[in-house]
Write a structure and sequence with these properties.
Layout: H1 3-8, H2 13-20, H3 27-35, H4 39-54, E1 57-61, E2 63-66, H5 95-109, E3 113-116, H6 126-139, E4 144-147, H7 150-160, H8 164-174, H9 189-195, H10 202-214, E5 219-225, H11 231-248, E6 251-258, H12 265-268, H13 277-291, E7 297-298, H14 302-315, E8 320-323, H15 343-352, E9 356-359
Parallel strand pairs: 1-8, 1-9, 2-3, 3-4, 5-6, 6-7
Helix pairs in contact: 2-4, 3-11, 4-13, 5-6, 6-8, 7-8, 7-10, 10-11, 13-14
């Protein structure tokens, strides 16, 4: 039986055929995909869409993740990384420490990007970030500054008693080049109330991302799944990202990643199931179909699923392996598998499945 017969015979065949013909699924169709078990067929279609766009290429970026502080007052129940102000093991990196880490990574790994994320620290004003970004851009001009979630931008605005747009504008002038998508989780107010009641709402995340795009700061979009969300809430989340992208074209990539339960308050409250590999492949395939021709890149999420599943994700619609993430601390606090990879491991993994690895920069340009 050929691919056409397989697709047309499926309960979601109309959606899959539409995707192959260039029609992105709507929110209701996305819900049907999420509720279907035809993951292999979704992967066949999504993989075809990715190959049409990227051939057999898979990109990755040599980068470090700079978790500049673990002090946070947001207390997200899914996070094992944060510490309250004044905790014995809390920290804030100073400018010299930041420079030292970036310099070592440039010398040792030839990094092209520094991903800067931390906690919601009420003791850090905007000058801390301006000095750090300015220093990195002036001393390491080949290194892209990809930093701060929308919720961190909101925290800075609260500290400064300023607007988030003003914060974004000042940070861009200081050297910020793009914004990660962290903090989105699932936009549903019901979900947010359970897992992160103190964090910004989905509507606020979308507003801040719209402002970033309008300020000339491209971004990533994300979704954290595998906890208390429902299919309709996932479909709505993806549809809202697609809607904003249709307006701004500011998202460079979409990254679905699963909740890691270990050492979290959420697990203590009974939410301890870890999403598996089939969940990842379904999310990657649906993401490619939802964002085909709209958000260029879909990431394979090796950080929370491992190299083997990331290889599979490339065949299910992903085109980007992600970063090497030297120095990662957030996911490692859950006791998950290794949270660092070398460029050699990534290129070897990509070649192993017959794809061509391509190193990229902060803006997904081949280097």
């Amino acid at each position: 039986m050929g691919r056409t017969e397989l697709v047309s015979g499926s309960e979601i065949g109309d959606i899959l055929e539409g995707s192959l013909a260039g029609r992105r699924p709507g929110e209701d169709e996305c819900r049907r995909l999420l509720e279907s078990d035809d993951v292999h067929l979704m992967g066949m279609v999504a993989g075809e869409l990715a190959r049409r766009e990227f051939g057999g290429r898979a990109t990755y970026v040599n980068n470090i993740i700079l978790n500049y502080t673990n002090v946070c007052i947001t207390d997200c129940k899914f996070c094992a990384f944060y510490r309250p102000p004044g905790a014995e093991d809390s920290y804030v990196l100073d400018l010299q420490q930041i420079e030292s880490r970036v310099s070592a990574a440039v010398s040792s790994f030839g990094i092209r990007q520094v991903l800067i994320q931390g906690g919601h620290n009420p003791d850090l004003g905007i000058s801390y970030y301006e000095e750090a970004f300015s220093m990195i851009r002036s001393k390491f001009p080949a290194v892209g500054v990809h930093g701060l979630s929308a919720s961190e931008v909101d925290m800075i605005a609260r500290v400064e008693k300023s607007s988030t747009r003003e914060v974004l504008s000042r940070l861009r002038e200081a050297g910020l080049q793009s914004v990660p998508g962290a903090g989105a989780e699932i936009f549903s107010g019901r979900v947010k109330e359970i897992i992160s009641p103190k964090k910004i709402s989905g509507d606020e995340w979308l507003r801040i991302m719209r402002e970033a795009h309008e300020e000339g700061l491209p971004a990533s979009a994300t979704m954290m799944y595998g906890h208390v969300e429902r299919a309709g809430e996932v479909a709505s989340h993806l549809a809202e990202i697609a809607s904003l992208q249709e307006e701004t074209r500011g998202f460079m990539a979409f990254i679905p990643w699963n909740y890691e339960p270990n050492n979290t308050q959420l697990k203590e409250e009974g939410v301890g199931r870890r999403a598996g590999g089939v969940d990842l492949l379904k999310m990657v395939a649906i993401s490619r179909m939802m964002f085909d021709g709209l958000i260029p890149h879909v990431q394979s999420s090796w950080l929370t699923n491992g190299v083997g599943m990331a290889q599979m994700a490339l065949m299910y619609g992903a085109d980007d392996f992600g970063g090497t993430l030297v120095g990662e601390e957030v996911v490692s606090c859950t006791g998950a598998r290794s949270t660092e990879l070398s460029g050699a491991v990534i290129t070897g993994a990509v070649r192993q499945i017959g794809y061509e690895p391509v190193e990229r920069d902060n803006f997904y340009n081949a280097v």
